[in-house]
């Protein structure tokens, strides 16, 4: 190895991939100082060296969401990439490719009543063990629009007052899939299930890899705070949602065809822009299982 990845070292890092292998160049271009980085020099359709895998893990931990351009992947290659990070998750409600439940479909066109993920959320936080991350591959892009916003929940937590941090310490929130998913995919022919997941999670969680604390409530799934009066909990949640929407915590990604975004669902929220009607935007998401938040 001739260099290592350093947050402040600038975008170009060169290292020897593995003993006996030729030198490879991976580039890491940060979108903002605190969230988002585009990785270059990696072809995800090929088997990745151990070194490349390490750099991807490190870049994800450091930047919360990483992006790849010009990736042409088969469903099998997309899923193999996901499996490098853990077992694959099957979405409890969303449509998937026929016979391949791990390949979730993301699609909006002129006939769509809505797009996926239009409000701020973390994916499926209503599950007891929400996904660690999601890998979205967009294959068809509108000429303009359809960006995705990502927000850093470590930064949102760090920016709270010490009094608010003390108040939230040990607080538990209910996350409920029922009001989100019931009827949501009916217009595109997906039948409702008898019930949807629901779980209780700490309002502030500790990231299992970085050990850092982050804010873990989201407007999509968090329905209330437990152990405090309803009106008080609702007011606190409203404050936290407003607080986390500060653009200082965010990056905004502009897609091109065959771009990939891989976000860490434990410490980042995201929101998709539905601003491109009547154009089409579509792709697939592979999601990696996660652990119970603590
Ligand atoms: O389409 C997007 O950019 C994101 C949609 C979404 O929320 C997701 O795939 O989890
Ligand atoms: Fe999402």
Explain the overall architecture:
The longest helix has 15 residues, at 230-244. The strands form 4 sheets. The protein has a 9-stranded mixed beta sheet with strand order 1-2-3-4-15-7-17-6-5, with helices on one face. Strands 14-8-16 form a 3-stranded antiparallel beta sheet. It is 19% helix and 30% strand. It has helices at 50-63, 75-83, 153-158, 162-168, 178-181, 230-244; strands at 12-16, 23-30, 37-40, 65-68, 96-97, 100-108, 133-140, 148-152, 172-176, 198-202, 204-206, 213-215, 222-225, 250-253, 259-264, 268-272, 281-288. The protein is globular, with a radius of gyration of 19 Å. The protein has 6 helices and 17 strands. The protein is an alpha+beta fold and 294 residues long. Bound molecules: 2-oxoglutaric acid (AKG) and fe (ii) ion. 2-oxoglutaric acid binds at residues 106, 116-117, 123, 134, 136, 148, 270, 272, 285. This is TauD/TfdA family dioxygenase. Keywords: Dioxygenase, Iron, Metal-binding, Oxidoreductase. One of its GO terms (molecular function) is dioxygenase activity.
What keyword list fits this structure?
single chain; 294 residues; alpha+beta; 9-stranded mixed beta sheet; 3-stranded antiparallel beta sheet; 6 helices; 17 strands; 19% helix; 30% strand; disordered N terminus; binds 2-oxoglutaric acid; binds fe (ii) ion; TauD/TfdA-like; dioxygenase; AtsK-like
Detail the topology: elements first, then pairings.
Blueprint: E1 12-16, E2 23-30, E3 37-40, H1 50-63, E4 65-68, H2 75-83, E5 96-97, E6 100-108, E7 133-140, E8 148-152, H3 153-158, H4 162-168, E9 172-176, H5 178-181, E10 198-202, E11 204-206, E12 213-215, E13 222-225, H6 230-244, E14 250-253, E15 259-264, E16 268-272, E17 281-288
Parallel strand pairs: 3-4
Antiparallel strand pairs: 1-2, 2-3, 4-15, 5-6, 6-17, 7-15, 7-17, 8-14, 8-16, 9-10, 9-13, 11-12
This protein binds 2-oxoglutaric acid (AKG) and fe (ii) ion.
Family: Belongs to the TfdA dioxygenase family.
GO molecular function, one term: dioxygenase activity
Keywords: Dioxygenase, Iron, Metal-binding, Oxidoreductase
């Amino acid at each position: 190895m001739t260099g290592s990845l350093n947050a402040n070292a600038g975008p170009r890092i060169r290292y020897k991939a593995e003993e006996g292998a030729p030198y490879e160049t991976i580039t890491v271009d940060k979108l903002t100082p605190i969230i988002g980085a585009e990785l270059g020099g990696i072809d995800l359709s090929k088997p990745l060296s151990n070194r490349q895998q390490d750099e991807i893990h490190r870049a994800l931990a450091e930047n919360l969401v990483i992006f790849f351009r010009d990736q042409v992947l088969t469903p099998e290659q997309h899923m193999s990439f996901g499996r490098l990070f853990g077992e694959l998750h099957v979405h409890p409600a969303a449509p998937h490719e026929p016979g391949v439940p791990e390949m979730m479909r993301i699609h909006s066109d002129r006939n769509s009543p809505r797009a996926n993920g239009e409000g701020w959320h973390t994916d499926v936080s209503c599950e007891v063990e929400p996904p660690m991350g999601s890998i979205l591959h967009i294959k068809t892009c509108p000429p303009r629009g359809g960006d995705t916003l990502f927000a850093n929940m470590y930064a949102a937590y760090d920016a709270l007052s010490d009094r608010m941090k003390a108040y939230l310490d040990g607080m538990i929130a209910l996350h409920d899939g029922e009001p989100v998913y019931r009827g949501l995919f009916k217009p595109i022919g997906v039948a409702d299930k008898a019930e949807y997941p629901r779980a209780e999670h700490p309002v502030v969680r500790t990231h299992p890899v970085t050990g850092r604390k982050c804010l873990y409530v989201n407007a999509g799934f968090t329905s209330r705070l437990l152990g405090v009066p309803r009106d008080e909990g609702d007011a606190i949640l409203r404050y936290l949602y407003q607080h986390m929407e500060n653009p200082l915590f965010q990056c905004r990604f502009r897609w091109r065809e065959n771009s990939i975004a891989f976000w860490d669902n434990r410490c980042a929220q995201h929101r998709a822009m539905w601003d491109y009607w009547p154009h089409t935007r579509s792709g697939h998401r592979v999601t990696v299982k996660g652990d119970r938040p603590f």
